[in-house]
Write a structure and sequence with these properties.
The structure holds 2 protein chains of 2 kinds.
Chain A lengths: L8 H4 L20 E2 L12 E11 L4 E10 L9 E2 L10 E9 L3 E8 L4 E3 L8 E5 L4 E3 L2
Antiparallel strand pairs in A: 1-2, 2-3, 3-8, 3-9, 4-7, 5-6, 5-8, 6-7
Chain B lengths: L9 H14 L2 H8 L6 E2 L24 E4 L4 E5 L1 E4 L6 E4 L10 E11 L4 E11 L4 E6 L5 E7 L4 E3 L2
Antiparallel strand pairs in B: 1-2, 2-3, 3-10, 4-9, 5-8, 6-7, 6-9, 7-8
The chains are: A mainly beta, B mainly beta.
Chain lengths: 141, 160
């Protein structure tokens, strides 16, 4: 028999954020850094920005990437870009990404090396139309 | 004679537990940061509904779909949603304050019933989370299928 539960008081609250603490710790430590902008790392090989690619470090010791790349013609084996020191993982990080090529859509692994290289070694030879980096989040310590 | 197993008394241990929590900074941190924000359930009173035929199809057995915003400015999603024959792949709209500043595409796990082969198959799905709060489901394969299920538990993103 299914028990009908009374609505929780929690769910009666208006759907607005109710976080009122440590505002200085909210959001990225020094804002988002756009790849290819002045003073930031540039794209390598034949990779191109499809949706602004940026990276940020958070107060609690994490780095996250966001944005989307595509290749001009067949994807090269070059790294997409290289993260600066302070934004690199202590060991290679692998994140799942949902990649679209001219032939198919499939999940592949984006790698972020300890040297800061962000790359996907097994995608060469096909034209990539969408490679989102939004799922790349890793600890830097 | 059957062995009697006694439960430890919680009341007796509270002062010691309190001291341990203070020592480990958990209690102090809890007071400094205030209460943990609550999870909000899709479809509950006052919360956004699941749309276009998407819903919590198993009565929460596979995880009640919901979301919350933590004190760092990160929105987290969880739970299972499914649809027998969705009229659109837009499944929900997050309210203001819980949305990313720009479009995000994040991978999630799911399954569907492949009508061509008559079997249930696991697949990777992608969830598009728009700056307008729209949650859109995309699948890696394009075969005709019905009865789709997606788990949202791996979704989290910054709102700043």
């Amino acid at each position: 028999m299914r028990v009908q539960r009374a609505p929780s008081i929690v769910n009666l609250l208006p759907p607005t954020p109710d976080v009122s603490v440590t505002r200085r710790e909210r959001g990225p430590h020094q804002g988002w850094n756009a790849v290819g902008s002045v003073g930031q790392p540039g794209l390598q090989g034949n990779w191109q920005v499809a949706r602004t690619v940026s990276f940020a470090r958070w107060h609690h010791g994490f780095v996250s990437l966001r944005g989307e790349l595509r290749s001009v013609g067949a994807a090269s084996s070059d790294a997409f870009f290289t993260l600066p020191a302070g934004y690199r993982p202590p060991r290679e990080h692998r994140a799942l990404a949902f990649v679209t090529t001219t032939n198919e859509e499939r999940p592949l692994i984006v790698r972020v090396g300890t040297d800061g290289r962000v790359h996907m070694p097994n995608i060469t030879g096909v034209t990539v139309t969408a490679l989102p980096l939004d799922s790349c989040i890793f600890a830097v310590r | 004679m059957a062995e009697v197993v006694r439960r430890p008394s919680l009341g007796r241990d509270i002062p010691a537990l309190d001291a341990r929590l203070r020592h480990s900074n958990i209690l102090v941190a809890g007071r400094r940061r205030g209460p943990i924000p609550p999870w909000r359930q899709f479809g509950a009173l006052g919360q956004p509904a699941l749309l276009n035929g998407w819903g919590d199809r198993n009565g929460g057995v596979d995880g009640v779909p919901g979301f919350f915003l933590d004190e760092r400015g990160v929105t987290w999603l969880r739970g299972h949603i499914g649809a027998a024959a969705p009229s659109s792949m837009v499944c929900a709209v997050l309210p203001e304050g819980f949305r990313p500043p720009q479009l995000l595409k994040l991978p999630v796990a799911g399954n569907y019933f492949d009508t061509a082969f008559g079997v249930r198959s696991w697949a990777f799905y992608q969830v598009l989370i728009g700056a307008d709060g729209t949650l859109t489901i995309q699948r890696e394969v394009s075969q005709v299928s019905t009865d789709q299920n997606v788990w949202l538990d791996s979704l989290s993103f910054a709102i700043l």
